[in-house]
Each structure stands twice: as C-alpha cells, then as structure tokens.
Write a structure and sequence with these properties.
With 342 residues, the protein is α/β, with parallel strands linked by helices. 41% of the residues lie in helices and 16% in strands. It has eleven helices and 13 strands. 2'deoxy-thymidine-5'-diphospho-alpha-D-glucose binds next to helix 6 and strand 8. The site of 2'deoxy-thymidine-5'-diphospho-alpha-D-glucose has 19 residues, from helix 6 and strand 8.
C-alpha cells in the first residue's frame, strides 16, 4: 500500500489520522477528499508536506469525483460524515445524504477498482447500555459492554445513518467480495475537535466567560479515548485486520458527563460547580462502553494515552493556544444551542 484516500480528512478525527500516518509511515501518500462543511477546516492539515498530502475539496456523494480519485489510490479510509447528534435532531437530511448515499458511492468505487476499504464507524450503532449502578455486580458481567456481536439498536438520526452505512459495507463484503474492514469506536477527544462537541464546547465556554452547559443531570456515561489512539487502531486494522471483520476500538475510559465537566473546571482553575444544567437531549443515550479485547488479542493493539487527566489537560492547552482556530465560530455555535434551550 502506497497511497490512500482519506475521506473527511479535514475534520477532527480524519485530520488527526492524516497527521498520524504522515508522522509514522514515510512511504505513504494521502489524498484527502473533504467537502469542508462547517466541521471541516483546511487549517487542520496545515504544515503537512505538500508532496505527501493533497486536499481535494469535494463531496463523497459525487460519483464522478470519487471514481476519478479511486483510480489513483490503493485504499480508502472513510471518515467523512455528518457527525453531531444534536444537529441530526434538528435536520436529519444531510445525515441521510452523506452517511448513507456517500458511503454507497465510496463502496461502489472500491468494488469497481478492487481497493482495500476501511469503514470508520461508531459505538452508537449499538444503542445504549444501562448505567453500571443499575446493574447487578456493578456492570462487570458478560454482555455489559458492546462487542462486535451486540445487536444494532441505534437511537438518533445520526446513529441510525451510521448503522445503515455499516450494513451497506457488510452486505458489499458478502455479496460482492468487497475487501473491507469496519471499526466502531467510542467518544474521541483531543486537538481539532469542533467546538459544538461536549469537551471543546465546555473548554471554550470557560475561555469565553460563558458558563458550561450540562445536559440533564450529567449521569450519561461516555467511554473516552484519545484520538491518537483511534488513529493507531485504524492503522492497525487497515494493515493487519481480517477482511469482513468488525473491530471495536476503546481504551476503558468510562466517565459520566458530570465527572468530565468537573475535571475540566478543576484543570482550568474554576469552582467545581461553575456550570448550568440545561435541557436534556431528546432520546439521550445513557451509557456507552467498549469491549476492545478482539483488537487487543487478535491484532496486538494497545492504547498509549491512558491517563485521561493528562490527555484532557493537553487538550485544554491546545484550545488555549489555538484561540484563532475556534473563536470565529463560537457565537454562532452558542446561538444555535440557545435556540434549543441548551
Ligand atoms: P467531524 O464532523 O469533525 O468531521 C467530519 C468531516 O467530514 C469534516 O471535515 C467534513 O467537512 C467532512 N464531510 C462531511 N460531509 C462530507 C461529504 N459529503 N463529503 C466529503 N466530506 C464531508 O467528524 P469526526 O468527529 O471527526 O468523525 C469522523 C468519523 O468518525 C465519522 O464517521 C464519525 O461517525 C466517526 N466517529 C466519531 C467519533 C467521535 O467521537 N467524534 C467516535 C467514533 C466514530
Ligand atoms: O460514541 C461515539 C460518538 O461520540 C460519535 O459517533 C459522535 O460522532 C460524537 O459526536 C460523539 O457523540 P456524543 O453524542 O456522545 O458526543 P457529544 O460531544 O455531542 O456529547 C457527549 C455527551 O455530553 C453526551 O452525553 C451529551 C453531553 N453534552 C453534550 C454537549 C454538547 C452535554 O452535557 N452538554 C453539551 O453541551
């Protein structure tokens, strides 16, 4: 493998993956296909060598564009998506268009040119789990984390379109022999994450003198992983994974939202209770938790950023230092949330 097409490579996780590959695998050249929606930013690829990374601004649902680019690469790693649950509750259509139709166009091109294809998905396709405190034995028993065998049960327009895209890929593997792998990862944090998302929203709220906003009681649990670990896991699956297999990616980072917010406040020198409770998200998934043992045992992967407090502190510092990267969007993001009472 010498050249890969990375869709959504100007977004949060996609751009971190591009940096990861450039920094670790000098033989690989990358074409990024990104529509540069509100969530994509050319600046995320700034400083990368032009002879190794090319940005093509375009839509993954554009069959001609995808067909042209597919002829020039050995593999496709598909990150591009409409990715925010709250937006999907306001207007689901772009989610259907990009996440379903866009994926269809990409897998058809991968089939036509017999390319290796990796599909980046989310743990949200499995729906949610009960809180540990509501489970006998504190939730340590079998079936109390997601595995690749967990039945699909998505809750939101976002997660249902991601689930649908996974199913398209699985069907293309079985019916057409598509050389695909899939991964379903838990919540990422780190640099370049759009400020509509929970962690950067609260960090930039504090930096802007706005009070942080917690949905409901803040009991909902997310299984946090540093985005650099997501990148190394995707690379491992792309290069060592078995065709047709799904690998779950996680690093045992379960925390409820209140705990995460309190830690952000502590690290930013604010009182622990300096936030507001706001209206909860409709259909809000309660808990996500990943059993990543298949990835550990079969592909010998392990996460490196296992200290959440250190990773969070580094992330806070990134937003402090990169004020220009986010400040122009802050008012608009908060105005949109205010319309939903959040
Ligand atoms: P993001 O919203 O930050 O970035 C998405 C990128 O896709 C943007 O650069 C955007 O411009 C681009 N894009 C959107 N529509 C496009 C289209 N039609 N054609 C071309 N480009 C388009 O998203 P993210 O958080 O970086 O997520 C990336 C992927 O990882 C998504 O598939 C998401 O479902 C998955 N994922 C995210 C998380 C998470 O915690 N954020 C966890 C697991 C999986
Ligand atoms: O699990 C993986 C998923 O993680 C990805 O597939 C999605 O693309 C990604 O956006 C993320 O989804 P979540 O809905 O979990 O992430 P979000 O950052 O929107 O919210 C995290 C939690 O924080 C969730 O329980 C809602 C809550 N929240 C969010 C915001 C924006 C708040 O309490 N306050 C907020 O202001």
């Amino acid at each position: 493998m010498k050249s890969i097409l990375v869709t959504g490579g100007a977004g949060f996780i996609g751009s971190n993956f591009v940096h990861y590959v450039v920094n670790n695998f000098p033989e690989i050249s990358i074409t990024v296909l990104d529509k540069l929606t509100y969530a994509g930013n050319e600046q995320n690829l700034k400083g990368l060598p032009e002879d190794r990374v090319q940005l093509v601004v375009g839509d993954i649902a554009d069959k001609e564009e995808v067909d042209k680019l597919a002829q020039e690469v050995d593999a496709i790693v598909h990150y591009a998506a409409e990715s925010h649950n709250d937006n999907s509750l306001i207007d689901p259509f772009p989610f259907v268009q990009t996440n379903l139709i866009g994926t269809y166009v990409l897998i058809e091109a991968a089939r036509k040119y017999n390319l290796r294809y990796h599909h980046v998905s989310t743990d949200e396709v499995y729906g949610d789990l009960p809180l540990r405190e509501d489970l006998p034995g504190g939730g340590e028993g079998e079936g109390e984390k997601f595995t690749a065998e967990t039945a699909y049960n998505p809750s939101s327009p976002y997660s249902s379109t991601k689930a649908g895209s996974d199913l398209l890929v699985k069907a293309w593997v079985r019916s057409f022999g598509l050389k695909a792998t899939l991964s379903n990862c838990s919540n990422n944090y780190g640099p370049y994450q759009h400020i509509e998302k929970f962690i950067p929203r609260q960090i930039t709220n504090v930096l802007s003198g706005i009070s942080p906003k917690l949905y409901g009681e803040g009991k909902n649990v997310r299984d946090w992983i540093h985005t650099e670990d997501h990148s190394s896991a995707v690379w491992t699956i792309l290069t060592k994974g078995r065709i047709g297999e799904t690998y779950l990616i996680g690093s045992d980072g379960e925390k409820n939202n209140k705990e995460v917010l309190e830690l952000i406040l502590e690290l930013m020198g604010q009182p622990k209770d300096a936030y507001e409770h706001v209206k909860d998200r409709p259909g809000h998934d309660l808990r996500y938790a990943i059993d990543a043992s298949k990835l550990y045992d079969e592909l010998d992967w392990k996460p490196e950023f296992t200290d959440f407090k250190d990773g969070l502190e580094e992330t806070i510092n990134w937003y402090r230092k990169n004020h220009d990267w986010w400040k122009a969007q802050k008012n608009q993001v908060e105005a949109k949330y205010a319309e939903s009472g959040q």
